[in-house]
């Protein structure tokens, strides 16, 4: 719990002001809602609150995150395996990489636009660790930073985190000239 | 019935609430497990893609909108005895809707993407409409409850009741349309389905209401006035008979279409568990017995006969839905008429579905949520229907 | 594309008689890659969207499809990294499957591969609540796994059982074909290859040349000419979904 609090405090300190404003606006809206509820008879508000709480408890995301194993979250490991080839300055990448690949992914998938500078496979090819071949793992480029910032990393449920990966079945198939 | 001693009564209430809470919690845990391991731990597969959770969820959702009829009859059609039942009916509606929706959502492959479902809307999708219809239902019922409970708002309760009534018809139409729009499979893609779902909701909702009402009256050591009981029982009988009429029409028209006869033969005669559930579960237990209990004078004078009839109707409902949802998927799609078909993927073959523990627990978790919300809600809100018999008699609303 | 067909057919005729199956497939890939290079239009340039002027399609000749052969299925699963084996095989993904048909009137056996038919009016797209199931401008039907919530409504709606649900976490995806637990997937017509100017893997690896890939909108394409001259079928044509995959010989 303490860990969580530390992380979110760290995160908030690093967030641009706009986000912090956003939070307080949300709080304001919440207060407004409560105000509205106050006009209802108490029995009803109690019940509505009960339903809301149960409903919220029920629907909270149960998805796993790549949370660290042992109590402390270490500083992210940012080792750049192929320096100097990035599509934008580090500062911009740090801030906007998610937006860049998100917009690119929609254009590529939905409109079929290929060959854009931003691409997740591009990121992986450059940033996969020389040791493990992957951007995940304790020291992996993506995982270590996301863990530090406590931001869920969803890409690799579907995308292959290893650079130039060949599935075992596929590698075997090309070797033997047929699928096992 | 002996009056419960208040201490015992209190204890019993907490025991029930804890029981319901535990069933719900186990259901949630099962869902977490499914989410973590994937649906590989369930009995659902690429042929039978919707399973037990959907049977339970659809029952809860359909009955949820049906239970609201009790309120509608009171507010919209101005029937006094039903009016005093409106708050309870609204509460039951919310409780069951919550249980059903929770199960549907937790069964999603990506339950963590609830926000995606809420923010991406495809107007051609019946599911998409439902994403609007369900939250709308909550809002409308909440407003309706407010107009019922707040004196100053009482004059608006008729309008709110009407809006609720219309909305709930839309909602059940939406639920039925989920299947009616599926031209791909023999069991579905039939225009009768939305209407059938509406009438099913009438019957099942009323049955659930009767069960809860009877339990509450028993708890408080009260008996329902015979005239009111008689009236609600007759209504239940009418609905049950109407459902049977629709189910019969659905199957008879299918038999009439040559391309569907193989499917009907499967569901009604040769399909193993499905004909058994249909004939014994739905027809005998869920329709014939309740009708006898309701309409045979010697039987319906027996204590608890209406309660028993209602319970049987609910059991029959689950059987019917199981046959409809699972049986409809177990039968192979007819892709190449005139050919005997074989493949690595169940083409031309009957599939067998055996639910596993996690999905069964999730399904029951939905019932648990509905039960807990009802138990706690009834206690907190004191929604016990109060019949002022003298007043009703004076108004000519009940005649013995 | 006709240039493509001829050397390959010639090769098969020569090789089929003398060379054992194993040796044949070991040599074949190299040849195919060359053949495809000549056969296809240049890859779509970077930055250019898929064009609605094109409608990609397949023509499958069931007369040529050899009973017992699963080369197209192996090719698809290898290309797209569909390798996982669930304890219950009904939970495995089936992007493409081989169907055996026995005519009830005369007992004649026909086999054919079946995959997503890339409907022009796809029911799976109509029913998807989030719009994750989608049709690209050039007619290829895809699932946007970023917005798929795994409700499986599209699987209920597809008249060809072309869709599969991923029942367990995956780790063996290929970089070109992302796929994962909790989402629905189906044949992508090898969109990642088509965009590079290549043919779908199944088409390329069919030793019988039973599949033709091409632009249904272009009257000059091989596929369009064949459809114009031969007797072709759309499966469950009564649904009027205007399929991108056509069959010959059923
Ligand atoms: S064949 Fe099925 S999955 Fe493919 S486009 Fe048609 S409906 Fe969709
Ligand atoms: S499973 Fe995914 S693609 Fe299919 S209908 Fe649901 S959200 Fe759409």
Structure notes:
Chain A is an all-alpha fold and 180 residues long. Helix content of chain A is 56%, strand content 0%. Chain A folds into two domains: 7-71, no CATH class; 74-178, no CATH class. The longest helix of chain A has 22 residues, at 17-38. Chain B has 400 residues and is mostly helical. The longest helix of chain B is centred in the first third of the chain and has 32 residues, at 6-37. Chain C has helices spanning 2-18, 21-39, 71-79, 123-127, 153-157, 191-194, 201-205, 222-229, and strands at 56-61, 96-103, 109-115, 133-135, 141-143, 164-165, 184-185, 211-215, 232-233, 245-248. A four-stranded mixed beta sheet of chain C has the order 8-1-10-9. The two termini of chain C are 25 Å apart. Chains in contact: A-B, A-C, B-C. Chains B and C meet through helix 6, helix 7 and strand 1 of B and strand 2, helix 4, helix 5 and strand 6 of C. The structure holds iron/sulfur cluster (2 copies). Residues 116-119, 122-124, 141, 158, 160, 162-163, 186 of chain C line the site of one iron/sulfur cluster.
N- and C-termini, Cα separation of chain B:
24 Å
CATH topology of chain B: Formate dehydrogenase/DMSO reductase fold
Kindly report the oligomeric state of this protein. Answer: heterotrimer
CATH architecture of chain B: Up-down Bundle
Query: CA-to-CA gap between the ends of chain C?
Result: 25 Å
Could you give a short account of the major beta sheet of chain C? 4 strands, mixed
The portion of residues assigned to helices of chain C is: 25-40%
- Count all strands of chain B and give the number: 1
What's the CATH architecture of chain C? 2-Layer Sandwich
Q: What structural class do helix, strand and pairing data of chain B support?
A: mainly alpha
Q: How many domains make up the 3D coordinates of chain C?
A: 1
Number of strands of chain C: 10
Beta-strand portion of chain B reads: under 5%
Radius of gyration computed on alpha carbons of chain C = 18 Å
Number of helices of chain B: 16
| CATH class term of chain B | Mainly Alpha
Low-confidence stretches of chain C: 1-38
Strand order of the largest sheet of chain C: 8-1-10-9
């Amino acid at each position: 719990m303490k860990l969580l609090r530390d992380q979110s405090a760290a995160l908030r300190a690093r967030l641009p002001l706009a986000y912090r404003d956003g939070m307080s606006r949300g709080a304001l809206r919440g207060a407004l809602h409560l105000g509205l509820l106050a006009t209802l008879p108490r029995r009803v508000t109690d019940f509505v609150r009960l339903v809301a709480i149960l409903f919220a408890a029920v629907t909270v995301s149960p998805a796993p995150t790549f949370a660290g194993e042992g109590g402390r979250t270490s500083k992210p490991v940012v080792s750049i395996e192929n320096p100097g080839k990035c599509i934008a300055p580090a500062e911009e990448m740090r801030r906007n990489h998610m937006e860049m690949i998100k917009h690119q992914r929609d254009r590529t998938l939905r409109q079929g636009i290929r060959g854009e500078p931003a691409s997740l496979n591009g990121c992986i090819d450059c940033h996969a660790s020389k040791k493990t071949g992957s951007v995940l793992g304790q020291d992996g480029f993506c995982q270590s930073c996301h863990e530090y910032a406590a931001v869920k990393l969803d890409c690799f449920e579907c995308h292959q985190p290893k650079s130039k990966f060949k599935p075992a079945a596929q590698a075997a198939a090309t070797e033997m000239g047929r699928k096992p | 019935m002996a009056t419960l001693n208040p201490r015992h009564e209190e204890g019993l209430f907490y025991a029930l609430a804890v029981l319901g809470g535990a069933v719900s919690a186990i259901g949630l845990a099962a869902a977490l497990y499914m989410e973590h391991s994937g649906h590989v731990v369930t009995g659902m597969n690429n042929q039978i893609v919707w399973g037990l959770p959907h049977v339970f969820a659809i029952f809860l959702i359909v009955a949820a909108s049906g239970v609201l009829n009790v309120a509608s009859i009171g507010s919209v059609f101005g029937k006094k005895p039903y009016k005093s039942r409106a708050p309870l009916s609204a509460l039951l509606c919310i409780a069951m809707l919550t249980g059903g929706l929770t199960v549907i959502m937790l069964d999603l492959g990506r339950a963590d993407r609830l926000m995606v479902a809420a923010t991406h809307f495809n107007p051609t999708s019946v599911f998409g409409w439902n994403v609007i219809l369900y939250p709308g239902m909550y809002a409308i019922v909440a407003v309706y409850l407010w107009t019922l409970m707040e004196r100053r708002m009482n004059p608006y309760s008729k309008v709110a009741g009407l809006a609720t009534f219309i909305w709930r018809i839309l909602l059940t139409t939406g639920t039925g349309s989920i299947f009616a729009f599926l031209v791909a499979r023999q069991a579905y893609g039939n225009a009768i389905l939305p209407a059938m779902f509406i009438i099913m909701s009438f019957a099942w909702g009323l049955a659930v209401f009767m069960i809860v009402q009877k339990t509450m009256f028993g708890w408080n050591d009260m008996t329902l006035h015979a005239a009111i009981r008689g009236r609600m029982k007759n209504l239940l009988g009418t609905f049950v008979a109407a459902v049977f009429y629709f189910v019969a029409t659905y199957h008879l028209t299918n038999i009439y279409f040559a391309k569907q006869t193989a499917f009907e033969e499967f569901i009604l005669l040769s399909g193993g568990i499905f004909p058994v559930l249909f004939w014994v579960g739905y027809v005998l237990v869920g329709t014939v017995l309740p009708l006898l209990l309701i309409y045979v004078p010697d039987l319906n004078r027996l204590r608890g006969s209406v309660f028993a009839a209602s319970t049987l109707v609910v059991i029959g409902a689950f059987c019917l839905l199981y046959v409809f949802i699972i049986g409809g998927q177990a039968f192979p799609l007819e892709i190449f008429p005139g050919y005997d078909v074989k493949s690595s993927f169940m083409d031309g073959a009957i599939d067998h579905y055996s639910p596993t523990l996690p999905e069964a627990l999730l399904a029951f978790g939905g019932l648990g949520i509905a039960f807990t919300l009802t138990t706690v809600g009834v206690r907190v809100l004191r929604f016990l229907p109060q019949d002022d018999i003298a007043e009703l008699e004076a108004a000519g609303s009940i005649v013995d | 594309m006709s240039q493509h067909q001829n050397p390959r057919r010639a090769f098969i005729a020569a090789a089929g008689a003398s060379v054992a199956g194993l040796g044949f497939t070991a040599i074949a890939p190299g040849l195919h890659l060359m053949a495809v290079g000549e056969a296809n239009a240049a890859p779509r340039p970077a930055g250019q969207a898929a064009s609605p002027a094109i409608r990609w399609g397949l023509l499958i000749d069931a007369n040529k499809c050899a009973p017992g052969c699963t080369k197209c299925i192996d090719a698809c699963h290898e290309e797209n990294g569909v390798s996982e084996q669930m304890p219950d095989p009904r939970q495995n993904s089936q992007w493409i499957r081989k169907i055996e048909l026995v005519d009830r009137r005369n007992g004649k056996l026909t086999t054919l591969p079946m995959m997503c038919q890339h409907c022009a009016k796809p029911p799976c797209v109509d029913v998807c609540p989030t719009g994750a199931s989608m049709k690209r401008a050039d007619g290829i039907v895809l699932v946007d796994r970023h917005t798929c919530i795994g409700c499986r409504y599209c699987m209920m709606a597809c008249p060809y059982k072309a869709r599969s649900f991923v029942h367990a976490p995956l780790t063996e995806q290929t970089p070109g074909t992302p796929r994962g637990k909790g989402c629905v997937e189906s044949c992508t017509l090898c969109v990642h290859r088509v965009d590079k100017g290549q043919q779908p893997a199944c088409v390329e690896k069919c030793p019988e040349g039973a599949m033709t890939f091409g632009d249904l909108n272009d009257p000059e394409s091989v596929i369009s000419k064949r459809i114009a001259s031969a007797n072709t079928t759309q499966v469950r044509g009564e649904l009027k979904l205007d399929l991108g995959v056509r069959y010959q010989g059923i």
